[in-house]
Design brief:
The complex is a heterodimer. Chain A has helices at 44-52, 74-79, 97-109, 123-135, 151-163, 181-192, 207-213, 231-236, 238-245, and strands at 4-15, 18-29, 33-37, 59-64, 67-68, 82-84, 169-173, 199-203, 216-221, 224-229. Chain A is α/β, with parallel strands linked by helices. Chain A has one domain (4-248): P-loop containing nucleotide triphosphate hydrolases (Rossmann fold, 3-Layer(aba) Sandwich), CATH 3.40.50.300. In chain A, strand 9 (216-221) and strand 10 form a beta hairpin. Chain B is mainly alpha-helical. Chain B has a domain at 39-252. In chain B, helix 4 runs parallel beside helix 9 (170-191), helix 5 (72-87) runs antiparallel to helix 6 and helix 6 (93-115) packs antiparallel against helix 12. The longest helix of chain B is centred in the last third of the chain and has 27 residues, at 216-242. Chain B is globular. The chains are: A alpha/beta, B mainly alpha. The interface between A and B is large, with 54 and 41 residues.
Chain lengths: 251, 329
């Protein structure tokens, strides 16, 4: 367990009688590229909310490397490198992409409380933000207000904001949601090429993408982890076929 | 990344905060009343004070998205502090101003812990409640504040030991304008700082802020304290230049008026509160001369019209006529 970038132990969460997470045990090693799949309502987004602190678990513990983070607030977990993106764009509509990413960099570097210096006095933060935008091919659009960016660019900006926090663990909630199929492979190749220091867990419905980019797959059903394994193991698993892939599987 | 590769973003961000010719022209124009309307300098002084008050509300409302219906609490607190210091025998304006600023800032800091925990409707109710609470406290403590009769016996010394506060308001307007300009420079720096960017982040998406590692409550406490200081200075200016303090400085009416002024001018635009204050105060002066009872009829009409047709205020409407300034020069 000490080698895992992220671990959860016995996470439980219910809303009244509805069990959304039951005994979730997860180990994400450094550099992981894991997919989290499952039918709608399986509790995938809830699990991300639990891990990042946006929801409090009823029971269970969350570890970032060796440190327990269960009691920390969301922003404190981010500061330690536990970062997420959102299924529905959760951006800053009237900030330009450059301003938004620079903001995230400033927060991490501890500049964001400084009100007596002007922003251009921090060229290191601006350079870093611009480098992140360039690496995601947003360099040319970074002066435009976020709300004017193409939808696919906004999905990339979601990731850019997360990268600006210098994550160790990155939880991507359907990063390609709403992106046409051709472009979604492009987006996932960006994710696959992220630094090997970052452990990535992504939720995704498109099985082609999942089997192409994930090294391991976790299948959730009804708030429980049904099975975890390599793409080959998951594809061959009878239970997965039955409850999730059903007859639609054509891998 | 070499520094030359990032020169363009650097230039873009510098261009965003550069002084525009229109700004310089605006501040030069604030000197015109001395020449053109020397009989209206007292009004001009009131406008400068109201503009400063609106600017302080803009910092929390326009930039951090904190809606307040009780901002007069800090204005009035600064006003009474400055008034009382002078009444008790220390009539030196500048130190009085600084003490009032500190007092209002302290009140702002203490209340900011409540403010930072709430948003939306709850926040409106809390700010409203705090404002009413302070106004009623001042009313009942008439031994200290003079109650409904107002604070009497405020005597100011000469400004800088040289300039008497005169009947024409020459000293009053010079003083108010200088303080407004100085604090405008501070506000301008605040919104162009990394902190100002974080405030805009809170306004644009409060949900995303914790997800990029931002401790929004700490930011909110800080900007609320800064705004309280500025509101307190505005209140102190009013007390010092009029040599009286009334309960009206703490009233709900004043909180509502400054909100209307900011919405009229355009929130989140730095000059919105100033332009709003000029229009509002001049209109009130002119319209109430014609028919005092119906003055709010016209303000109501103007407010409805602006919100419907110019949702970003008068300055927002004007900005749409100007060419956008986005890509680096």
């Amino acid at each position: 367990m000490s080698t895992a970038a992220l671990s959860t132990r016995g996470l439980d969460k219910s809303f009244g009688s509805l069990v959304v997470a039951k005994n979730i045990e997860l180990d994400l090693p450094r550099g992981a590229r894991y997919a989290l799949i499952g039918p709608n309502g399986a509790g995938k987004t809830t699990l991300i909310n639990l891990i990042t602190g946006m929801l409090r678990p009823d029971q269970g513990r969350i570890f970032l490397e060796a440190d327990e983070v269960t009691a920390l607030r969301p922003e404190e977990r981010v500061k330690r490198g536990l970062v997420r993106t959102f299924q529905i764009n959760t951006l800053f509509p009237h900030l330009s992409a450059l301003e938004a990413v620079t903001l995230a960099v400033c927060e991490r570097r501890g500049y964001a409380g400084t009100w007596w210096q002007k922003l251009p006095a921090y060229p290191d933060a601006i350079e870093e933000a611009y480098a992140i935008l360039l690496s995601l091919r947003l360099g040319a659009s970074c002066y435009r207000p976020t709300r004017e960016l193409a939808y696919g660019q906004q999905r990339l900006l979601e990731i850019a904001l997360a990268l600006a926090t210098n994550p160790k663990v990155l939880l991507l909630d359907e990063p390609a949601a709403g992106v046409p199929q051709g472009e979604s492979a492009e987006l996932f190749s960006v994710i696959a090429d992220l630094s090997q220091d970052i452990a990535v867990l992504f939720i995704e419905h498109d099985m082609h993408v999942v089997f192409r980019f994930a090294r391991r797959i976790i299948v959730m059903v009804g708030g429980r982890i049904l099975v975890e394994g390599t793409p080959a193991e998951i594809a061959a698993d009878a239970r997965v076929r039955e409850v999730y892939l059903g007859g639609a599987h054509h891998g | 990344m070499t520094s030359s590769a990032a020169a363009e973003p650097q230039r873009y961000l510098e261009a965003q905060i550069r002084w525009r010719p229109l700004e310089i022209a605006f501040w030069l124009a604030t000197l015109l009343p001395f020449v053109l309307t020397p009989n209206y300098l007292l009004l001009a002084s009131q406008i400068a004070i109201t503009a400063l008050f609106a600017l302080s509300l803009d910092l929390i409302l326009g930039y951090a998205g904190i809606v307040s219906l009780g901002h007069a609490a800090y204005f009035g607190f600064g006003s009474y502090t400055a008034g009382l210091i002078a009444k008790w025998g220390w009539g030196e304006p500048l130190t009085g101003l600084i003490i009032a600023a500190a007092a209002a800032g302290l009140l702002g800091y203490l209340t900011s812990f409540i403010i930072a925990r709430f948003r939306h409707l709850a926040l409106i109710m809390i700010t409203l409640g705090l404002g009413l609470l302070l106004a009623e406290a001042a009313n009942s403590a008439s031994w200290l504040t003079g109650g409904a009769d107002g604070l009497q016996g405020v005597r100011m010394w000469k400004l800088l030991g040289m300039f008497q506060f005169d009947l024409f308001g020459t000293t009053a307007y010079s003083y108010s304008l200088a303080v407004l300009f100085l604090l405008f420079l501070v506000a301008r720096r605040v919104i162009h700082s990394p902190f100002g960017l974080a405030l805009r982040g809170i306004r644009e998406n409060a949900v995303r802020m914790p997800a990029i590692g931002a401790a929004s409550p700490a930011h909110i406490r800080k900007v609320y304290t800064i705004a309280a200081v500025m509101a307190g200075v505005a209140g102190a200016l009013l007390a010092q230049t009029t040599e009286t303090v009334s309960l009206e400085t703490l009233s709900f009416q004043r909180s509502a008026d400054v909100l209307v002024i900011l919405i009229l001018g355009g929130a989140g635009r730095l000059y919105g509160g100033i332009v709003g204050a000029i229009i509002y105060m001049v209109a009130r002066d002119q319209l109430s001369g014609i028919n005092p009872q119906y003055w709010y009829f016209w303000i109501g009409t103007l407010l409805v019209a602006v919100v419907i047709f110019l949702p970003n205020g008068i300055l927002g409407g004007l900005a749409r006529l100007m060419p956008a300034r986005r890509s680096p020069a």
